Amino acid sequence: ECNNPSGLIGDSSCCDYETVGKLNIDFSAKLQEIVSMPFFRYFKVNLYKECPFWDNAGLCMNRDCSVETMDKQKIPEQWRSEALGKVSMPTTNQVPMPNRPVKIKDQEFCAPDIATDEVYVDLKDNPERFTGYSGPSADMVWKAIYEENCFDVSEEMTAGCQYCESERSKVPKGKGQLQQLMEGIARNDGPEESCLEKRVYYRLISGLHASISIHICDEWFNQTTGEWGPNLDCFVSRVGMHPERLENIYFDYVVLLRAVTKISDYLAGYEFCTGDQTVDKNIMSVVTELVDLVKQCPPTFDEKLLFQDGGQGKKLKNQFRDHFRNVTRIMDCVGCEKCRLWGKVQTTGLGTALKILLSYDDASLKGHRADGVLSRSEIVSLLNTFNRLSESISAIERFGVMYQQRLREE
Ligand code: FAD
């Protein structure tokens, strides 16, 4: 059974699927317009860092896994100098060295992409879609990401959060056990979790995973016909048959929408600095239209409900942040360049949303107090990630129609 979802989205504040579906009609058009503009297309990224967690042999050699990089001269000077933004650099005048620990500010949910061999990529020219990347390498990455959902807060924690050492000790070393873990994930799609923070963490990751799966199924390469197009069976088996995965995509969407709402004044006052005032004005007018749209939305997520439990809440919040940073580091282990690129865009986008929601109150995101809160890379990631989720929601609707049509024909 594969029906379009209905009812309330768990852990959101008062949102149902139908409302999000309707909101998304306007958002998808505006976001498409935004991500087509050079400011939001040109992304600075380091694609060549070593995986810090395991030996990453066997890169995907398919043509569709590779990324086309850009000539740096096409990038306005202001964007290049700002490129690492305030996320990344140590405050001293040292050049970052491979083994020197880099200071990361407490409010950051993403690991800095420091290195000398970053490149610029035009996201529009390198769309996220089916590449053929799969097997043990992809399995390892997803497994490592889900394992980050273990928080060490057991004994003192009173709010129902559990230390998952027992789960971690079950974590497989060999291939057979890895299979077991994946089957476990498939069976349950995550444990029934009583702790809101753990649930939120799991939903964010599972929603991202499901959204990536939808992009793959929506732009699938049919090796028999040599054509690109949607693959309904792929959608049904990977996402449609798992209501909780569908729900988690909508959950990610409402979290991103809340983050964009929270920085709407900041965005409205942002200087885009392309070096051409007419272009700047065009960007500003489209961004203002987006801001007007978000301001009309009902509240979609209440971040104030998280980490309420005094000292323990603080401890849990630090772990939540550190674990999410690890997820952004795990992206260096993705064995396919294009998947790594979009993995980095979207984990940075989610990390930026978490930073906006959990590191700043509303007042500190207004006026001069907010100067330099977000780097260009963070803004680009945030809006591209919101757009990818928006495209997933549109694709869910299209796949739903295809599925009904298939049922009628059978
Ligand atoms: P996978 O998607 O690999 O999932 C592994 C297991 O996790 C499943 O068997 C299931 O038990 C569980 N699971 C699946 N979905 C969820 C969910 N939403 N929530 C909870 N549990 C779940 N491939 C491309 O073709 N193009 C890309 O752009 C691309 N980007 C990628 C980016 C990243 C960061 C990673 C790690 C992989 C990417 N891949 C990409 C590979 C792709 O995600 C799959 O791993 C691959 O297609 C194999 O899919 P699969 O059906 O074996 O299951």
TrEMBL record:
GO MF, any single term: FAD binding
Name which cysteines form disulfide bonds. C60-C65, C336-C339
Q: How does it sit in the membrane?
A: Peripheral membrane protein
Q: Which GO terms describe its biological process?
A: protein folding in endoplasmic reticulum
Q: Does the entry feature the keyword Endoplasmic reticulum, yes or no?
A: yes
Q: Which UniProt keywords apply?
A: Disulfide bond, Electron transport, Endoplasmic reticulum, FAD, Flavoprotein, Glycoprotein, Membrane, Oxidoreductase, Redox-active center, Signal, Transport
Q: Which GO terms describe its cellular component?
A: endoplasmic reticulum membrane
Please indicate if the UniProt record lists Signal as a keyword. Answer: yes
Tell me which residues this entry annotates as catalytic. C336 (nucleophile), C339
Family named by the database record? Belongs to the EROs family.
Q: How does it assemble?
A: May function both as a monomer and a homodimer.
According to UniProt, the name of this protein is: Endoplasmic oxidoreductin
